[in-house]
Design brief:
The protein has 69 residues and is α+β, with helices and mostly antiparallel strands. The chain has helices spanning 26-34, 40-58; strands at 16-19, 22-25.
Protein backbone atom coordinates (compact mmCIF):
# COMPACT_ATOMS: atom_id res chain seq x y z
CA UNK A 1 0.00 0.00 0.00
CA UNK A 2 1.22 3.48 -0.81
CA UNK A 3 2.57 5.23 2.29
CA UNK A 4 0.62 8.36 1.31
CA UNK A 5 -2.65 6.60 2.01
CA UNK A 6 -4.66 6.15 5.19
CA UNK A 7 -3.66 2.98 7.06
CA UNK A 8 -7.34 2.25 7.81
CA UNK A 9 -9.32 2.97 4.65
CA UNK A 10 -6.54 3.16 2.04
CA UNK A 11 -7.77 6.44 0.57
CA UNK A 12 -5.22 9.06 -0.52
CA UNK A 13 -4.46 11.34 2.39
CA UNK A 14 -5.51 14.93 1.79
CA UNK A 15 -5.97 15.77 5.45
CA UNK A 16 -5.49 14.03 8.76
CA UNK A 17 -2.52 13.12 10.95
CA UNK A 18 0.75 11.24 10.70
CA UNK A 19 1.90 9.02 13.57
CA UNK A 20 5.39 7.53 13.26
CA UNK A 21 5.19 7.99 9.51
CA UNK A 22 1.81 6.28 9.24
CA UNK A 23 -1.06 8.36 7.92
CA UNK A 24 -4.65 8.46 9.19
CA UNK A 25 -7.27 10.48 7.29
CA UNK A 26 -9.65 12.91 8.95
CA UNK A 27 -12.68 10.70 8.22
CA UNK A 28 -11.09 7.71 9.99
CA UNK A 29 -10.04 9.87 12.93
CA UNK A 30 -13.68 10.89 13.38
CA UNK A 31 -14.84 7.26 13.06
CA UNK A 32 -12.28 6.14 15.65
CA UNK A 33 -13.34 8.90 18.01
CA UNK A 34 -16.96 7.75 18.03
CA UNK A 35 -16.43 3.98 17.80
CA UNK A 36 -17.70 2.08 20.83
CA UNK A 37 -15.28 -0.42 22.42
CA UNK A 38 -17.72 -3.31 21.99
CA UNK A 39 -18.04 -2.89 18.21
CA UNK A 40 -16.39 -4.81 15.40
CA UNK A 41 -14.99 -1.54 14.07
CA UNK A 42 -13.14 -0.96 17.35
CA UNK A 43 -11.41 -4.31 16.93
CA UNK A 44 -10.57 -3.46 13.32
CA UNK A 45 -9.01 -0.10 14.26
CA UNK A 46 -7.17 -1.66 17.19
CA UNK A 47 -5.73 -4.39 14.97
CA UNK A 48 -4.66 -1.86 12.32
CA UNK A 49 -2.90 0.21 14.97
CA UNK A 50 -1.15 -2.89 16.29
CA UNK A 51 -0.08 -3.93 12.81
CA UNK A 52 0.90 -0.54 11.39
CA UNK A 53 2.03 1.66 14.28
CA UNK A 54 3.22 -0.66 17.03
CA UNK A 55 5.75 -2.32 14.72
CA UNK A 56 7.41 1.08 14.25
CA UNK A 57 7.88 1.39 18.01
CA UNK A 58 9.23 -2.15 18.23
CA UNK A 59 11.73 -1.44 15.43
CA UNK A 60 13.35 1.03 17.80
CA UNK A 61 12.09 4.36 16.64
CA UNK A 62 11.84 6.93 19.39
CA UNK A 63 8.27 7.43 20.55
CA UNK A 64 7.41 10.77 22.12
CA UNK A 65 4.29 10.71 24.24
CA UNK A 66 2.55 14.05 24.59
CA UNK A 67 0.01 14.42 27.34
CA UNK A 68 -2.39 17.27 26.74
CA UNK A 69 -4.17 18.53 29.87
Amino acid sequence: MDNKRCIFCGKPLNDGIIILGKRICKDCIIKIKFTKPDSVFYEYYRDCIKREITKEIIKGEEFIWTDYH
